[in-house]
Amino acid sequence: MLCAVVLQTNAQIESGTKYIGGTIGGSARTTTSDYKTSSFNVQPSVGYFLNSNWMIGLSTEYNVTNAENYATIYIGGYNQHAVTYSLKSTVIKLGPAVRYYYHVSDRFSLFGEGSIGVILVKDKHTAENVEFYSDPNPYYRGTTTISKYEKLRVGLAPGIVYFPTPRIGIELKANVMSYQTNLSDEKTQALFSISNKSEFNATFNLASTSIGAGFYF
User: In angstroms, what CA-CA distances link 131 with 97, 123, 176?
Assistant: First the structure.
């Protein structure tokens, strides 16, 4: 009877099966009394199964990160102190994705997801109450700058799916690894500089995990 149940439950994933779903995630932390950060992300996706294991599709992402810091910055040879430095970064990503499912039992499946896409980034930097120690005439008090640029990101995310019904899956995904590089030229605007260097990140924490649901039909 167990074999029959497994066959019946896994039958919802076969060649031609379609998928629509998404995950949400977020985090908030204070590392010191001077630094606070929070983030929120939504990742909708659609897919098509080539067989019971392989799915190809399209993945999108909307992410907002806020950070606040009390820091010292240096401009033009002067030593200044920014009472409040804040950053709001908004990211929109779109690109193809592929998943491989390993069916552990009638209700649980593991998967590995690889994705590549172009991300559009908008950073809003704000420095308030900037005081100059060496210059008697402060000229950056209450400065706000906005930077826009594009990056190419490649990501790897393992996950697990629980099927309460043959058509609905509750999933937990961890975005543990990514590589990204700037597609735009390096920009420098007023107080802040954007690097065009490539970045490789590997992490596993609350900020990298997200939970969601998918519909298989």
Answer: 48, 23, 40
Amino acid at 169: G
Which one-letter DSSP state was computed for residue 132? E
The per-residue pLDDT for 167 is 94
Encode burial over 117-149: b for 16+ CB neighbours within 10 A, e otherwise: bebebebebbbeebebeeeeeeebeebeeebeb
Q: Residues 12-29, buried b or exposed e (16+ Cβ, 10 A)?
A: bbeeebebebbbebbeee
What's this model's pTM, rounded to 2 decimal places? 0.75
Count Cα atoms within 13 angstroms, Cβ side, for 104: 10
What is the 8-class DSSP label of residue 186? P
Give backbone dihedrals phi and psi of 137, rounded to 5 degrees, phi first: -125, 85
